[in-house]
């Protein structure tokens, strides 16, 4: 009889747990799987993919997981919610903590920051999303905008998997994790296993994506990380932080300090210096957001280009993906009003000023 508290038998997590429990893995001196053992595990994953069980052990207590798109919305988080989550903690790849606010505000931060919340670290759909995004949007292109802009990625798994994720996706942006999923919950992101329609950013077939995810998980069995990629039902979204005004002054860059994990204490030397520094930090708010309704429902790249203020015409997809890209360019998933119009006016004014100087 299936364990009612465990993952479904033929789910991604269930397969990993089953295989992990059946195999006392032989390791090489560096702790990695040997070639023969790796091939064996890959074949087991293939057999699971090819098998057609007579019945699937689906958790009937969560029917919404498979009943189509969830009825979530893209209403901007309230000011109270935005204030509350400022002190929530995230972890970097070394397991060091920092406040969520430090990702988008403070010294040496871009004035506009898009926070992308992804699913578990083995999710092939989200990996394809970040991989495609990294091909079309670079840190240099964002920092050259009239108002400095940047991107940060937040997952929900073990921080020890962050470096793997960055390597697999070619992500050029910082990646953090919220293992408690407190930010996901507070910002209204939901849970589902429904895949929805295939997005333009997805290049692999569904079966190939699932197979690759399982193999990734199996590679991390020796390190005890196969089941620590994050909640597989959790989906994410995108949230853009911008300053209240275009002309808001920026503070002088200083060395960043971070509170200890499990505390809400602000760094300082006891004389109020930390509080004074905080008061000079440029305040920001969420001006645009999108919450995923399915496991592959991230805002499409053409929409992100528009939201960030980049020229979408300068980013051409592969010919085989052109039709889906054009369809994605016509669709808008997120809601909000950004600073892009003001940024365009700044660019136009700068060009006119340069032309006048050239004429003189």
UniProtKB/TrEMBL annotation:
Basic and acidic residues bias: start-end ranges: 26-42, 318-334
Lineage summary: Eukaryota, Fungi, Dikarya, Ascomycota, Pezizomycotina
A Pfam family: AhpC-TSA_2
Sequence ranges of Polar residues compositional bias: 349-360
Origin superkingdom: Eukaryota
Protein name: Thioredoxin domain-containing protein
Region (Disordered), start-end ranges: 1-72, 252-281, 318-360
InterPro entries the record matches: PXL2A/B/C, Thioredoxin-like_sf
Listed SUPFAM superfamilies: Thioredoxin-like
PANTHER family, per database record: PEROXIREDOXIN-LIKE 2C, PTHR28630
